[in-house]
Amino acid sequence: MYWKYCFLLISLLITTEAVSQNKPSEKKPEIKELDEVLISNNAVQKNKKEESLNVETVNNSFIQRNLGGSLMQSLQKLPGVKTISIGSGGSKPLIRGLSFNQVIVVENGLKHEGQQWGADHGLEIDQYAVNRVEIIKGPSSFIYGSDAVGGAINIKPLPLPLQNTFGGSVDLTGKSNNAQLGSSINLFGRNKNWFFDSRVTTMDYGDYRVPTDVVHVYSYAVPLYKNHLRNTAGKELDFHLSTGYSGEHLKSVFYFSNVHTKSGFFANAHGLEPRNVDLELHDKSSRDILMPYQQVNHLKVSNTTSFRLGNHAFETQIGFQNNFRREYSHYVNHGYMPPIYPEDMYAPQDLERQYDKDVWSFSAKDEFRIQNHQITVGSNVVFQQNEIGGWSFLIPSFTQFNAGLFAYDKIELNEKWFLNGAVRYDYGKIKMKSYYDWFQSPVSENNQTELEYLQRSQDLTKTFDSFTWSIGANYNPGKLSLKANLGSSFRMPIAKELASNGVNYHYFRFEKGNPNLDAERSYQLDLGMEWKAQNFSFQLTPFVNYFPNFIYLNPTSAHDIYYGAGNQVFEYEQSKVFRYGAEFQTRYYFLKSLSAEIGAEYLYSEQKSGSKKGYTLPFSPPPSVLFGLNYEPQIPFLKEPYFSVDYRFTAQQNNIVPPEKKTAESHVFNVAFGSKVKTGKQDISINIQIQNLFNTRYLNHTSFYRLIELPEAGRNIIVSMKIPFSVSR
Question: Of 627, 639, 638, 643, whose CA–CA distance to 594 is shortest?
Fold first, then answer.
């Protein structure tokens, strides 16, 4: 394992050498240059006018003003973007109703590879280390390859420090609902060409509170002590380092990050039966982390090098990731497991599951211009290896290989018309290993019963390949911008969908894979209309989407007899699915300092074949509308002060698929205010939010805990402060 961390030592040595070689410079740039955003803003607007995909871009200020328990919770104010939340500290992206491995996350150009984000798996991203995020709504497989069927979250690299500077910042955060205390320290430096940028983040939070004193876990009433959701506390420790060289024709950056989290699962809804939980033990403290809990460590090391040769701009990236996930729970003998855990077992008694996933990747692309054509060609190769451990089996060990080639052309007909076209070829191969139970089960055959070690998975190798394409057009006549994009997407099934065969104790169900699944395909038409005037703007983005073979975990009427005392069996199937929807945003300025905004979203999905024909898809978000009012007055000694209030109306969701339950409508108010305080040459940012102002009890249809009628978190006061410091050299 130690070789995986050699890259860290090398990066630290490079950083030390770069700093030691810095020489005093006569140039002393003013710190005010850090505040300039005109160039980046213009680049964002230019990109939206020239690209046919629907892309939303937010910066660090947006994230800080809307700080949630995780990055995705901080982004869900955007129409079309939701989360599947797991408590207060974890969540995964949900774009236009699609999630899991149908949406990808890219950080610093590297596709984030966790454990494919099961419903109880959060996203291992430090939101304090995020500067700018692009949210691509709609298929983007031709850019990022397989899995980008529903969209992508692209976390852009941090801007390089200015030449001859040394500085950093300190972020402090406190939250009332779960008594969270968090801090993040950033330190950067650069001479003329060599630079480094580092960050350490730590968080510690207790059990979060909900506006109820009892919840019903599958018809069993569970009392909550002081409204705390017992055992949902957690800790996080993250480290980031980027270092390298930036010259006139060459830039090479090494990225290193390690995100480590430990968080508890709601004790009454994971692993143990709800009535067997030791309430007195759990309720002694709201900050301890008892079983069941999870520990996840995600390591990333990569290098991105870009250089120019004549008319060509080349970029290469090589990366390594390791996702090490362990889930701990009291051993409970289900089915034919021995009542007493064997002393000679290969796994510790409390280690329910373990996944150890290594990912190696390489990509290269070349961007060049021929007359009015801006052409990009590229390729990528990814190899994954996943090993399993623990006493509970769900998916087998596997290896996976993916490779792709793509070509993209943007044609500028004139200053108003742009055409886009892309083609891509993908190839994938997955090889899964056999697995036998570590305990014996009785098997009856010909009126005789014998004890056998049952085989849970077989050696299985599957290959997939596909061509995908995309065509689009943009028309920009003055204040109006119109766009259209038609594209196809491809996603090869993952090991869980092909070969799972075990009890998911978090859901009290038996999940069974289907080795006969075909690659998932999608066709989508995206439209966009945007109008921008001096005091008024609006944006409408409708879409139509068709899956000829959507992969779906279908509940059946069968129940298992070997594991988990008769859990209901869920099997992976494929069906035709038709979806359509739209997002709408508008903003009006009554005064230069007073504005109102509305953001709305609607989604409809229906299965057109299969055993659930006529039903929708799981985790389908209901329609919602967000009304906001923002006031930015001029106040002496304060910079960019703001006061905002928003009200979100979420309609009832009656269009469900069993075993989901209908969700009532909800009305939630939030307020926020903050400012930058001038202190010498630096501006200290202070932001305060009050989420769920009236402590409203409501259910979130896309929450991991929705099935047990668990309401969302109660009132939460969030205070964050950013204190920058710098030294000109």
Answer: 643
